[in-house]
Amino acid sequence: MRIAISTGGGDAPGLNAVIRAATLAAIHRGWEVLGVRRGYYGLLGEDEVVTLNADTVRGIAHLGGTILRTTNRGNPFRWPVPQPDGSVLEIDRSDELIESARQMGIEAVVTIGGDGSMHLARKLHDKGMRIVGVPKTIDNDVPGTASTFGHDTAVSTALDAIDKLHTTAESHDRVIVTEVMGRHAGFIALHAGLAGTADVILIPEIPYDIERVCDKIRERDRAGRHFSIVVAAEGAFPRGGSPHFVETAAAGVAARLGGVGEAVAHAIEARTGKETRSLVLGHLQRGGQPTGYDRLLATRFGGAAVAAVAAGKWGHMVALRPPHIVAVPIAEALAAPRRVELDHDVVQTARATGICFGD
Ligand code: F6P
User: Fold this and answer.
1) pLDDT band (50, 70, 90) for residue 251
2) Distance from Cα 153 to the centre of ligand 1, integer Å
3) Are 32 and 1 in contact (CB under 8 A)?
4) Which protein residues are within 6 Å of ligand 1, measured from CB?
5) I need a surface site. Which of 95, 97, 132, 219 has the fewest CB within 10 A?
6) 161 near 177, Cβ under 8 Å?
7) CB of 171 within 8 A of CB of 190?
8) Distance of alpha carbon 48 from alpha carbon 272, whole angstroms
9) How far are the Cα atoms of 56, 228, 296 from residue 16, in angstroms, in the given order?
């Protein structure tokens, strides 16, 4: 058996641990393993396909990033081709991709990626590719799995920042707004905000009213708490408004979010008169060593993906259904998006401990 592994979409701490575990588990079965570099680029002649073995995956489990590189511009069904007049034409290269894998003797593909990559996997499976998915994202928004690796590391990074911001905010009687990642789902803001005892958490699932946010800050002031910590997911937006973008979508590239933290900080200062600062944690949350939780989950996913290939579970993705890792049909897993549930105990506990969601 010869399998190929690819990593697609934004990176997340733990990708290397999956690559290592899947490679070793496959070798253990006597299989050969190839690594497709930069999403599917390697299979489309735009990058390389390399051999993975015990030597090439040695000592990588604790490293952030991906030794195979990745891209969020590699949709083979909508491949962007720049035209002489400056426009971009999108072409379908999926048949070429499948033929290239066949010519290389690749009998199965393990694709590690977010919901975008899982949608691609489903489409490639529909075209006959023998493919198994491994869900990843720091945002924790891949449906069908209780959690994804990368999220715990991102939360730890955000938590570390929130802890540090607390002391400086308190010393200066300031409000500090921290913008964290979270495109459609506010899990990072919610988890880091609650663990970090933030005063306000803004998430895409709960459109905020800036007056409610300011009320909370004024209430704290009256109680002698002259500083406040606000954690905002990049995808948060005001009631009746829309998310903040720094770049619009282009061919093959999603619109880039950003700016909600600064906008909220300006509004708070203008309305309350309190000195307010903002910062964007950005890609800091995507880097660094995966935490023990993420490394373990990623390693389990890698082993389970090879077991799913051995069982012929094509079109399935591995998923955490505590206490087990299972394989679920990708189409079924992606049926509904994964978002913060407003009646979840994490949200209830945040409200019960005085955290304001701006509603
Ligand atoms: O999907 C994960 C994510 O971290 C989102 O929260 C964020 O909007 C996006 O990736 C940013 O990706 P990039 O800047 O790499 O295009």
Assistant:
1) confident
2) 15
3) yes
4) 10, 72, 114, 137-139, 181-183, 234, 257, 286
5) 95
6) no
7) no
8) 56
9) 11, 38, 12
Nearest ligand 1 atom to alpha carbon 253: 16
Distance (angstroms) between ligand 1 centre and the Cα of 241 equals 21
Q: What is the pLDDT of residue 163?
A: 98
Q: Which residues of 184-223 are buried (b: 16+ CB within 10 A; e: fewer)?
A: bbbbbbbbbbbebebbbbbbbbbbbebeebbebbeebbee
Average pLDDT over residues 37-60: 98
Which residue is closest in CA terms to ligand 1's atom 12?
10
The CA 173 to ligand 1 mean position distance, Å, reads 32
Domains and CATH numbers, the chain: 2-149+290-322 (3.40.50.450), 153-287+341-352 (3.40.50.460)
How does DSSP assign 231-300, residue by residue? EEETT--BTTS---EEE--BTTBPPEE--HHHHHHHHHHHHH---EEEEE-GGGGG-SPPPHHHHHHHHH
Instruction: Read off the pTM.
Output: 0.97
Instruction: Give Dmax over CA atoms of the chain in angstroms.
Output: 71
What does the pLDDT read at residue 252? 75
pLDDT tens column, 107-140 = 999 999 999 999 999 999 999 999 999 999 999 9
| Cis bond before residue 143 (omega within 30° of 0) | no
CB atoms within 10 A of CB 21: 23
- Residue carrying structure tokens 């399935």: 316
Active site (catalytic) residues? 139
CA dihedral in degrees (72, 341, 265, 246; nearest 10)?
20
Q: What's phi and psi for 9, nearest 5 deg?
A: 80, -170
187-242 confidence digits (pLDDT tens):
999 999 999 999 999 999 999 999 999 999 999 999 999 999 999 999 999 999 99
